[in-house]
Amino acid sequence: MGFFTKDAPVPAAGGALKPLSKDRIKHALEQAGWSYNVDSDGDIGGGWEYGSFFFFVNGDNDELLCVRGFWRGVLGEAEYTQALEAVNEWNRDKLWPKMYVARDDTGAVRINAELNVDYEHGLTDEQLSQHLLCVVNTSMSGFERMNELFPEAWEKAKPTE
């Protein structure tokens, strides 16, 4: 029963497990060629075509990676139910990131994406880079879907070139 046997040699580990840190996140973003800013609270954030992202380190021992993405579009109350249905469909069909609808401080309807990962035992540089790449790219796919469903909101929000 070859399914459970290893016919090929196991490759060497991609690096030692190290604690999660904001410096490691910044380094991974730089390695990917992505621009970012650090705000006055020390939060790391950056903008992409369809949305912006913040990269947080949380938990009692800074072991939790939290990436939150914010779609650029802004919806009105009349679109709330359609937005809920859209993110529910996404969450049903996709493993991650979680998408959700929330109201901002002005009461506008916003669509967000979020991924949380517990790295209590550390992670390699390669794992961190892969998670950041995956969460941004899959969130962008979700945001692209929102652009299709809400073209008027996207037209108003999309960056000018």
From TrEMBL:
Q: Extract the CDD domains matched here.
A: YbjN_AmyR-like
Instruction: Enumerate the InterPro entries for this protein.
Output: Put_sensory_transdc_reg_YbjN (IPR019660)
Q: What is this protein called?
A: Sensory transduction regulator
Q: Which Pfam families match?
A: YbjN (PF10722)
Organism, scientific name: Leucobacter komagatae
